[in-house]
Amino acid sequence: MTNKYYEMDEHSIEAAAPIELLVLTDATSTWRYTTACDGVSYGGNSYTAEPGLKIGEVEVAHNVLRVTLQIEASWSCGFVSDYITGEIDAPVEVTVYRGCALRTLDSDSVQQWWTGYVKTVTLSEPTRRKATLACVPVWTDLGRAGLCLRYGRLCQVPLYSTPCGVDKTSYKATGTVASVDGVTITSTTFGLQADDYYTGGQFESGGVKRLISAHTGETITLASSIGNLIVGASFDAYPGCDHTIDICHSKFSNRLNFRGQPWLPDLNLHDAGVA
């Protein structure tokens, strides 16, 4: 629904002073920016003026699931500095509002213009220290596979999820980084557990999360690096699961919530027939 003054402001020739408000939200943090010259308030929240912030036009394609929005921001932007060094492995929601700088920003003058998710963050113009956020619309969820359980020996739900039932905080280990080299991190904390204990688990430091792809001795390997991680930084680490019933039971005592069929017969009667 179009708000009271929005259409008038958008089509005004003499009094047009459009501004945009950008909200980025992940599982733990929210960033709010505006294209206005100074910070503004809207809906009880403050939006920081971000120099160089540019919200492009929506790129329309024949397939609505491929419609994209490009957002340009400086490397110094808080969101960019958090996400530029790694893949986005958890949903980051994007909401863009449009309004007029000459009016009080309220429900009568501000319109939600676009909503979706950040797909990638890339360095677009290194000489100008700019990054580009490629965003996809919220209805891309329609292209994702629905929730379904298939027959298989492995559990099919994510570790620490509600269906899994394992309490993540009960398995948290804390420590400090002894050395860091790209995706490789060492700490005595990791050496307290057997090899592969943390494989498939999660590493968190400074509000940034990464998947642990390998664990041997006091060394782990992350799926992607954390750019501002330094020696001495504190972290939380959580063990992983290979989704077999043996690990589910021996490592997490969670066999009652196991969502696989580990005792499926090896013989497929449809292929071999009845002996």
Write the topology of this structure:
Blueprint: H1 6-11, E1 18-25, E2 30-34, E3 40-42, E4 45-49, E5 54-55, E6 69-74, H2 78-83, E7 93-100, E8 111-125, E9 130-137, E10 173-176, E11 179-181, E12 184-186, H3 188-191, E13 202-205, E14 208-216, E15 219-222, E16 234-238, H4 245-252, H5 269-272
Parallel strand pairs: 2-4
Antiparallel strand pairs: 1-2, 1-7, 3-4, 5-6, 6-9, 7-8, 8-9, 10-16, 11-12, 12-15, 13-14, 13-16, 14-15
Structural classification: mainly beta
Report the sheet-strand fraction.
Answer: 25-35%
- Cα shape: globular
Q: What is the chain-wise order of helices and strands? A: HEEEEEEHEEEEEEHEEEEHH
CATH architectural group of the largest domain: Roll
Largest beta-sheet characterization: 9 strands, mixed
Percent helix, as a range, is: 10-25%
The number of domains is 2
CATH topology description of the largest domain: Pnp Oxidase, Chain A
CATH class of the largest domain: Mainly Beta
Strand arrangement across the biggest beta sheet: 3-4-2-1-7-8-9-6-5
What is the alpha-carbon Rg in Å?
24 Å
Nearest-integer average pLDDT:
83
**Poorly predicted ranges:** none
SS element count, helices: 5
Number of strand segments? 16
Distance between the termini: 67 Å
